[in-house]
Amino acid sequence: MLGEQVGTLSGEMTGIRVLSTDGGHAVTESSFQGTGTLLGTAIKDMGTYESVLQPDGTLFGEGQGISMTEAGETVTWHGSGVGRFNESGGVNWRGAVFYETAAATFARLNGIAVVFEFDTEESGKVSASLFEWK
C-alpha cells in the first residue's frame, strides 16, 4: 500500500550522452541535480541513470545517486523504473528506489521500498515525489 510522502525534489538535467545503439536499442545516460526534502530534512541530490529504449517506445531505466544535508549527512540510493514520453517532450518515470545510510536522520529509509514519480521536461527541468511503500 502506498504510504506517506517522504520526499520531493526539483532541479535540472546536467548531462546526457548516448552509450550505445546496438541492435536498434538506444541506451542513454542522463545526470541530474536538485534540491528538495527527504523525511522533512533539506537535501541536495544528484544522480545518474541509464535508459534503454524498448520496442514499444517506452523506456526502462536504472540509476544511482546520493543525497546530502547541509550538515554533511548522506544517503545513497539505487532505483529502477519505466518511462513514457509525454506531450511536452519530456519523460514521466515511475519506479522504486532503495536507500542505504548510516545517518540517523535517514535510518528509517534502510530496508524499505520508496516509490517515485520523476518527471522531466524538454527544457531539462526535473521534479520528483517520493512515497513510502508499505
List key phrases describing it.
single chain; 134 residues; mainly beta; 8-stranded antiparallel barrel; 8 strands
Topology, number of strands: 8
Which regions contain 5 or more consecutive residues with pLDDT less than 50? none
Mean pLDDT, all residues: 96
Class of secondary structure makeup: mainly beta
Helix segment tally: 0
Question: End-to-end span in angstroms?
Answer: 5 Å
Task: Give an overview in words.
It is built from no helices and eight strands. The termini are close together. The protein has strands at residues 2-20, 27-38, 41-53, 59-68, 74-85, 91-100, 113-120, 125-133. Strands 1-2-3-4-5-6-7-8 form an eight-stranded antiparallel β-barrel. Helices cover 0% and strands 69% of the residues. It has 134 residues and is an all-beta fold.
What's this entry about, in short?
By secondary structure, this protein is an all-beta fold.
Write the layout of secondary structure elements.
Layout: E1 2-20, E2 27-38, E3 41-53, E4 59-68, E5 74-85, E6 91-100, E7 113-120, E8 125-133
Antiparallel strand pairs: 1-2, 1-8, 2-3, 3-4, 4-5, 5-6, 6-7, 7-8
